[in-house]
Design brief:
24% helix, alpha+beta, five-stranded mixed beta sheet, elongated, 3 helices
């Protein structure tokens, strides 16, 4: 079976590798040594392929002549990739924590987890409040305002509206209100 150069090119849209003193591109990342606008020194920016903004910008070491930057090398590049990847991972964790909340409450029928998933839509921001039993089965979902504050008290108040006085889930416990 022969390789089709047109198909091979279409499958790999990443820029070609480049290994220069001030520009290093490989493994989906570009490291670029730039003049530091804040002082007389140099900085390095790490940009993930396809992203408009750098994931990381930091100071870069001066060369021996104390005027020009130290050239990029394979070890520095791999360290920069690792650091930039960690910055992106932490940013994603922070974003997830900001938009996803969870509390667990004890009810007469057992432990119920209540989650709040915020949908940061530009035109229709909202959140989905959901209840899950101990096995992870969804019991109820309710669309709420994006500013809804999920606390143990607010979760208990919502669950009280869903559970009959006996504490056992009602047969029609699953209430879906997706705003439709």
């Amino acid at each position: 079976m022969t390789s089709n150069p047109i198909n091979d090119q279409a499958e790999d849209d990443s820029p070609p590798s480049m290994k220069e003193a001030r520009l290093w591109r490989d493994d989906g990342w570009t490291a670029r040594v730039i003049k530091n606008e804040d002082d007389e020194g140099w900085a390095v920016e790490m940009i993930m392929d396809g992203e408009p903004e750098p994931a990381l910008v930091g100071p870069w070491t001066m060369g021996r002549d104390k005027k020009n930057p130290k050239p990029l090398d394979v070890n520095a590049f791999h360290t920069l990739v690792k650091t930039a990847s960690e910055v992106l991972r932490r940013h994603e964790q922070q974003r997830h924590a900001m938009f996803h909340k969870k509390v667990t409450v004890n009810t007469p029928s057992g432990r119920i987890s209540v989650t709040l998933d915020i949908v940061p839509d530009e035109f229709d921001p909202h959140a989905l409040l959901a209840a899950f039993d101990a096995t992870g089965e969804e019991l109820a979902v309710l669309r709420v305002d994006a500013g809804f504050k999920l606390t143990t008290a607010s979760a208990n108040a919502w669950l009280e509206t869903l559970l009959p006085d006996s504490g056992d889930p009602a047969p029609d416990f699953v209430h879906r209100d997706n705003g439709d």
